[in-house]
Automatic annotation (TrEMBL):
InterPro entries according to UniProt: Calcineurin-like_PHP (IPR004843), Metallo-depent_PP-like (IPR029052), Metallophosphoesterase_sf (IPR051158)
Organism domain of life: Eukaryota
Gene that this sequence comes from: Tmppe
Name under which the protein is recorded: TMPPE metallophosphoesterase
Gene3D superfamilies, alphabetized: 3.60.21.10
Transmembrane intervals: 12-30, 42-64, 85-106, 112-135, 166-184
Length: 439
């Protein structure tokens, strides 16, 4: 039987990841109610950082072998550039691995340069892994189809082997720069008209501005939030809604960065529902209180009547549910409760639901098909290539507007900022201006 010491490094990293994952499940199931809140918060974040790093170690070993070990066997190893190259690759991998720990130690009103650099390296790491894997697969496929391999000369083989990492690195550098430039631009304003069944005619053309996935934390701070608020105010919405993942940190630590939200002054109110990242902070109650101080109302499995300014007899029901991650984390007093959220919301009036994850939107429509409009986020539209495929297949609604049945629509925001990695590839940050139309 093979001992642990005899396992290759990749297998050891996989075992470590499995052990950390098991400890996460154990702490969620048996320790959640026994640990003090602050301790539980740190334990959860530490476990998530260790789990991510254990998985990344497998990829990092591949990157090192492809971009360093490969060249150490060739004439390039004697070049004066080889030592700086080894140092650069090592620093790149170290920064990428450190990104997950910035949530624990480097969150403030504005992002630290180290956090921006670390998360940029993480984004480049993901792209590089993809190209190394894809080019390697193409190479192996070519060898198989061409029936070559053993017949190929050593010199040609070494040349082809060296070309793969060089091409992967070049593509990664180009796409990283493009992604950084794309994410540095202000969010685009996307105007969408949505017919809402049973919306009173007096509320025709009501304007709702949708924000989602701002992710205040290591790489998004007060300056970007202030820009978002200015753009929202310029749109003059009747209602502003924030559908989760506003933050990645505790309210006390990042309070100064949140202050621009106090300038939102939509006449029919500003509303908020939790996303999965709010529960990762383990600080939801304090966030609720902070948002209330800015005149933003959290919809904690509850609803409000949005009354027409023209007639008090005309209204629709705006409801919000807790994110489904609260159930997974066993977060006390929280969890998606659609019946409670839609209490007194009858099908005689239009119903608009705020639910962070598209999966929650699907579940809500299975239970209450009379909901007319659901506003969600969470997917980021994939945020960066090549993560789009995963986001697409893991969510019943990916991004944009979907019609479900005769009288129901689901709109999924691609996110107003980004999570961690300050890059956008194949997606664009968005502030959504939704015009509600009465039939």
């Amino acid at each position: 039987m093979i001992s642990f010491k005899q396992l290759p490094l990749e297998a050891k990293a996989a075992v470590a990841a499995g052990l950390v994952f098991f400890s996460m499940m154990l702490s969620r199931s048996y320790l959640a109610e026994q640990l003090e809140l602050r301790t539980r918060r740190w334990l959860l974040r530490l476990q998530m950082a260790l789990f991510a790093n254990a998985l990344m170690l497998i990829g990092s070993l591949h990157v090192w072998r492809s971009t360093v070990t490969t060249f150490s066997r060739s004439s390039a190893a004697s070049s004066f550039c080889f030592i700086p190259w080894k140092i650069a690759v090592f620093m790149f991998l170290a920064l990428a691995h450190s990104s997950f720990f910035t949530l624990l130690f480097l969150v403030a009103e504005e992002p630290y340069f180290f956090s921006l650099a670390a998360y940029t390296c993480l984004g480049a790491y993901i792209i590089l892994i993809f190209f190394l894997f894809t080019l390697g697969s193409v190479e192996q496929g070519y060898k198989f189809l061409a029936g070559r391999g053993a017949k190929a000369g050593t010199g040609n083989k070494n040349s082809r082997t060296a070309m793969k990492p060089v091409l992967a690195v070049m593509l990664t550098v180009v796409l990283t720069i493009v992604g950084l430039l794309n994410a540095s631009r202000p969010p685009t304003v996307n105007s969408v008209e949505i017919p809402v069944h049973k919306l009173p005619s007096s509320m025709n053309n009501l304007k709702v501005v949708l924000l989602s996935d701002i992710h205040l934390g290591p790489t998004v701070g007060k300056t970007k939030l202030a820009m978002i608020v200015r753009m929202v105010k310029a749109l003059k919405p009747d209602i502003t809604v924030i559908v989760g993942d506003l933050t990645d940190s505790e309210a006390e630590i990042i309070r100064p960065a949140v202050e621009p939200l106090g300038e939102l002054n939509s006449p029919l109110g500003t509303y908020f529902v939790t996303g999965n990242h709010e529960y990762y902070t383990s600080d939801v109650s304090n966030w609720f209180e902070l948002l209330k101080s800015f005149n933003i109302r959290p919809l904690h499995n509850e609803n409000v009547k949005i009354v027409s300014p023209k007639s008090t007899d005309d209204w629709f029901c705006l409801a919000g549910v807790d994110d489904i991650e609260a159930d997974v984390l066993r977060y006390s007093g929280h969890g998606m409760d659609l019946k409670k959220a839609l209490r007194d919301c009858s099908s005689e009036h239009a119903i608009v639901l705020l639910a962070h994850q598209p999966v929650a939107a699907k579940w809500a429509l299975q239970e209450r098909p009379d909901i007319n409009l659901i506003l969600s986020g969470h997917t980021h539209g994939g945020q960066i290539f090549p993560l789009h495929a995963g986001a697409y297949f893991l969510n019943p609604f990916f991004v944009g507007l979907y019609k479900v049945g005769q009288n129901t629509f689901v709109y999924v925001s691609p996110g107003t900022m980004y999570f961690g990695i300050p890059m956008r590839l194949g997606s664009r940050a968005e502030i959504t201006e939704i015009i509600l139309r009465s039939p």
